[in-house]
Design a protein that fits this description.
Chain lengths: 239, 239, 239, 239
DNA sequence: GATGAATGAGTCTTCATTCAT
DNA sequence: TATGAATGAAGACTCATTCAT
């Protein structure tokens, strides 16, 4: 039934009992999280029962409640872990874009970020799939909406950095950017279709095009008007 | 003499009652659908109980099951009604785009379609909100995925009409287009923020820009390279 | 859907509307009874819904309650009709046995009665099957038990006619006789296996043998001690 | 050093708890079965609600479904337990009859078996009563019919052991034997009337008489033709 | 009288959570 | 601390019966 978890053991070889117990705690919690991710991913939140999780994790029902307050608890634990990571990555990417020496460098940064992001999505597809439809969970809709709004605002702010523009328009643009990326992610998870590299390149070109189109009416975005970004893309990843 | 319809009369006596009854049926079913839309919209599928629906519709529990097989039944009834309508509208819009005399006309058609679409979304926000997170419902995820795929394929095909291009790329573009629109819709429903008109214009400009950016690498899309579509937009809806 | 009921029409050709209405009442009630018999027979009482009955009878739900008080009502109506008939037949048979000129004649009477009884069972198998498990119906158990007790008592009395014997023993004998017949009936209905004629002959021989065995310890039953009854059987129905 | 069973301990810690838990399980399941038998016996299957069972067993609703799949589940569990036991007893009895030294011994064996059987019926009257009308339960009719057919075939085979006879006749005889016994059982349960001893003796005499009557037409059954079996009965249990 | 839409009490069944061992 | 048996509130669905048309 149980396969020996060689890797896990190799990383921390218990010398003291106390140490082992702490490890066991972590391992148990890890098993629960892993099980939950897989099950939420495959069947969604509501069709996954706590019993399914504990069965897969090979622990008892009671144990679950030693590690998580309730079913929602494990869901938000998963969500938190992921979103913290992604928020941080996005923040770093934005920072690098702002600090980019020239426009082509900024584009390359963006492509890089997107490609890494899509790679994470593919690597941890179950995790990402598990968190889709977060709206299903009580308070989850508001939580998800809040998270998204934060991201939208950050992105809108970045888009507006080049000059004062209509805030609402910038927000809508930010939403479209995120929506476009979101759909690629969705397809990636469900059909594995656009590879992270393809997706990153397509998305960058598409989104840059879209944003340029918007900004061309504004003289201040002249730096986007040339084709430098397109050449940047072509240099980076010649098809 | 035998009256050949003696039996027939015994079984169903078609008086005016029949008409009235039919009306009553429709009204009851309508009330149920309306109640379900509002409740699904407000609380989501799972937190809406059949009893809530029947209470709001002012009918008894049993009546619900006269019109729908089960709770999922009413959900899919709602989904079907909506998606049929939207699919048809999208089909008509695509047709008109193809038949457009020149490119500016095509753009105007698209703006029109999007604006109408967004207006429908705003008008029937609860309905659209009710159907978000369809993945929650059993089989709903597959159903939603299938619907979306059909739309993606149709759009990809249209995008590819201008010349032979990589199918996967076209699909990804189509996804991005839909994702961008989807997010606007989402924001519209949740915060009422971009008005249908604004959303339509922004989306058209953004998406055209994005698509143009993609296609500029292909010489056959030269007709998109000029600024006619931008002028079309400006004529149509000067900001 | 509806096949013209040529026979029914042939028997009573309606000349006046009033007459027709009375007839329609009867026909409707008949259709309900017929449908109920078939459905109870096939699926049993509990798995048959009033709606099934009215659907099969091609009447509306409300109509059902014009003819029967409730679901039990139609069941007991069926039971009553059948049991009245059978009770009467059994009474007549007992009478004829008592009046039989000699023992062989009595045996022949009994064979006749049993054969007729089994023929009725085969002819109206659904009806008989419908009434098995009467105990299922509220009050049905007591009703069925009461009916059976009456039959047992009558039979026991007849068995005891030849001389004073232990009442309890006679009742037990009567039960065994009825149980044996009952099982043949059951098999007949479910598998169609013993033909009425075979069943009647086998049963008579078996039961006479059993009763004789009982009574041989009593000198007064000497008339059964010889083989006349067996010869009677052989004359009647040589295998 | 690695403790190879570290993981194993984590998942199931076999202390004395395990034993106690198992006991608790058994006790709970037993209480449910006992309650169900009493209630089915008293009110029949349909008028017994799962809630009645759990209330009487002093457990919660959920506990019921830990032990049985559904309401039918507990019914068939009861039926299975009983029928397995009875089938085995019947098999042993048949075996002993076949191995009996002489005919009187065989008869004595049969009387013994029947008396034990009737004693079991009286002792566990609720259980037996609970299972009457098995036809009520979905699939129960077929199940009951199948069980009965097996018994009929086994008995028919035994009856036919003395020489080749018509299979259908033997089956019908077997049915009559079982029907006769069945009715005694029924009366015993409902009115407590024939005592197991009386019933066994009466039944043996009656059935032997009936079977003899059938077989006397077959010369091969000569050993049944004398009165040895009757003397055997008289020796065994002089009235 | 007939129709069939509407009723609503009744039941089974589920599953997140607790707690004795 | 882990276990898993027990809990019980909650919710979906049924179906005999009524009643407006």
């Amino acid at each position: 039934m149980r396969q020996p978890d060689a890797d896990a053991d190799a990383t921390h070889r218990p010398t003291r009992t106390r140490h082992t117990q702490a490890e066991r705690r972590d391992r148990t919690k890890g098993r629960l999280l892993e099980a939950a991710v897989l099950l939420f991913s495959e069947h969604g939140y509501h069709r996954t029962q706590v019993m399914d999780i504990v069965n897969r994790a090979r622990v008892s029902a009671g144990t679950f409640y030693r590690y998580f307050d309730d079913k929602q608890g494990i869901f938000f634990a998963i969500a938190e872990e992921l979103s913290c990571h992604e928020v941080e990555e996005a923040r770093k990417a934005r920072q690098m874009v702002l600090e980019a020496a020239d426009f082509p460098a900024a584009v390359r940064t963006m492509v890089h970020y997107l490609e890494r992001h899509f790679e994470r999505v593919v690597d941890r597809a179950p995790l990402y799939r598990a968190l889709m439809n977060s709206g299903v969970v009580d308070r989850g809709r508001d939580h998800a909406w809040a998270m998204k709004e934060k991201a939208v605002c950050a992105l809108a702010e970045q888009l507006g950095a080049a000059g004062p523009r209509d805030t609402d328009d910038l927000q809508s643009l930010a939403r479209m950017v995120m929506g476009a990326i979101s759909e690629l992610r969705y397809a990636m998870i469900h059909s594995g279709k656009p590879s992270p590299a393809d997706a990153a390149r397509l998305a960058t070109r598409f989104l840059q095009g879209g944003l340029t189109a918007y900004s061309t009416r504004a003289p201040r975005y002249t730096e986007l008007h040339d084709d430098s970004w397109r050449r940047a893309l072509d240099d980076e990843a010649p098809v």
